[in-house]
Amino acid sequence: MSLNVDRENTAFTFKGGMLPMTVMELSSADPEEVEAQLSGKVSQSPAFFQHTPVVLSVEKVDGPNLALERLCAICRSHKLLPVAVRGGGESAKQSAWALGLGWFPPVEARTHTLAPVPDAEPAVAEPVAAETLVAHGGRVYRGTVRSGQQISAPEGDLVVVGAVNAGAEILAAGSIHVYGPLRGRALAGIHGDTDVGVFCHELHAELLSVSGNYKRLEDIDPVLLGKAIQVYLEKDHLHIEAL
Amino acid sequence: MAKIIVVTSGKGGVGKTTSAAAIATGLALRGNKTIVIDFDVGLRNLDLIMGCERRVVYDLVNVIQGEATLNQAMIRDKRTENLFILPASQTRDKDALTPEGVEQILNNLKDEFDYIICDSPAGIERGAQLAMYYADEAIVVTNPEVSSVRDSDRILGLLGSKTRLAEQGKEQVKEHLLITRYNPHRVDHGDMLNLNDITEILSIKLLGLIPESEAVLRASNQGVPVTHDDDSDAGQAYADTVSRLLGEDVPLRFHEAQKKSFLSRMFGGRR
């Protein structure tokens, strides 16, 4: 019997959650270099460094001499809180665990890099290819997403073929496409990817968000309601546009 | 083997118990051996609607806790052959229900009856979840207003995940939409959601539409399910609903505002 009924006297419940997380993708394993660059960033945007949880991605720099402990200490001294390590081999995994950090498997054959966190990189815009390949791990959901349901694509795009009703929530690391009326909440770019969007056939959304920038139904121009639209981020500003 | 049908809605006061009583009566009137079970432990109402409140001795919780047998607790309806009622307890709360106990009762009833109608309490907690857990089919009762539609949407989500059929992953609970308290005049004035809006949002098949009717309140207070009132619009609408539940193709009625005829305006015809 696996009937899930609410009991008042439980100490806790486990719940799946999708939280925005900053990934610090290391391209150098040299602690001095990391330290120097971090110091520069702190002076540029101190607001970002408020015990922000980060995942250290060591995919590019993994090796026997990876000074994970040292790197973590540097992060902490700049008010970044390493919570997990991503990628690397067995030794990276073991040292992450020894340091009390979580370990995530590498994102295999990544075809594009995450766009940098916007307020950490205000001055230099990275050259963005005209077209970034859609990350795999996307998800296609067929049917109505109902009030109280949450459908997510933690690693790619989410496509819903059907309606998303009021009180429902859909999330994706990549873009969100709804082939039907969107009445609930849609959050794209939940890991900070800014080069993603929300697309739907009929806009009635309670909330639209791209990479943490959001608009509530109240903020949406009523002219757009009921229309086919796209939502995208430009200069930290959320744009909603009829298609 | 009986078909287990849950009558549910999420929101309270939309007409679950009235509908459960009316549909159970309609099924029994057509020769199906039917039992209607009140799952609203602590807020027992079904016995009043069915007019058997003075004959309740034992209830669902007594049976679950082994204090009475099923046969002692079941009440035979006086008006309709083939119809039985299993009342809820008024003095207990919903924690007295256990999944094992409910399963046991349903298993015992399954061989004897053609239809088991479970009248769900409002809400989405234990009582409502237990009422729907073993269902083969669900009748989702909705009023033409936004809060009711949203709650029904939530219930439909639970029907798709928190039922035995859903957990086994073999098939879905068959979902039917029943719209109650529909008033075409008020829909035309924009006071109420219209039929198409509701079916579009919930996107399940419409089983029936019951017009807002004086007959329903009268029936409740008299303790006679409205299905017995053949002359009333609501009585006929429930009869249509039962026909569709049995697989007949019946055209929809009562969904359009009728212009009052000259004569009925002159003489104040009620229906």
TrEMBL record, chain A:
Keywords: Cell cycle, Cell division, Septation. Signal peptide: none annotated. Residues 12-82 form the Septum formation inhibitor MinC N-terminal domain. InterPro entries: CAP/MinC_C, MinC, MinC_C_sf, MinC_N, Septum_form_inhib_MinC_C. Cell division inhibitor that blocks the formation of polar Z ring septums. Rapidly oscillates between the poles of the cell to destabilize FtsZ filaments that have formed before they mature into polar Z rings. Prevents FtsZ polymerization. Belongs to the MinC family. Interacts with MinD and FtsZ. This is Probable septum site-determining protein MinC.
Automatic annotation (TrEMBL), chain B:
The keyword Cell cycle applies. Coiled coil: none annotated. InterPro entries: AAA_dom, MinD, MinD_FleN, P-loop_NTPase, ParA/MinD_ATPase. Residues 2-149 form the AAA domain. It comes from the Bacteria. Keywords: ATP-binding, Cell cycle, Cell division, Nucleotide-binding, Septation. Interacts with MinC and FtsZ. Belongs to the ParA family. MinD subfamily. ATPase required for the correct placement of the division site. Cell division inhibitors MinC and MinD act in concert to form an inhibitor capable of blocking formation of the polar Z ring septums. Rapidly oscillates between the poles of the cell to destabilize FtsZ filaments that have formed before they mature into polar Z rings. This is Septum site-determining protein MinD. It comes from Larsenimonas suaedae. The lineage of its organism: Bacteria, Pseudomonadati, Pseudomonadota, Gammaproteobacteria, Oceanospirillales. The gene is minD.
